[in-house]
Amino acid sequence: MTTIPTAPVPAPVSLYGFLTPKPGHSDDLRKLLMDLVEPSREHTGSLQYHLHEQADGRFFLYEVWRSQEDLDRHNATTLLRDFMAKVPEHMEGAPEAYFGVMRSPYPDNAT
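RE: above sequence
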């Protein structure tokens, strides 16, 4: 029996981290982040896109993308470029960001 080689299935990738607003900038940062949620969820390959607000005032953003290529496409959009140009004036320091390849299986019905 001959097996036909198949291309590897890309692993989902996740991006997550904390953003700390400057004093007096919480509302502005919240709006900028909230304005990303729905449009980002509509981008090809978006599996999860969530914004949380912590009790200490930091924001936690959690994204899961079907593949690195999908995340790269998302990061190249005007939406993200505009966000990245505006967000530094509302943040204290750099984002505390993490990136990883998802090793646990992602449900088939989520793609």
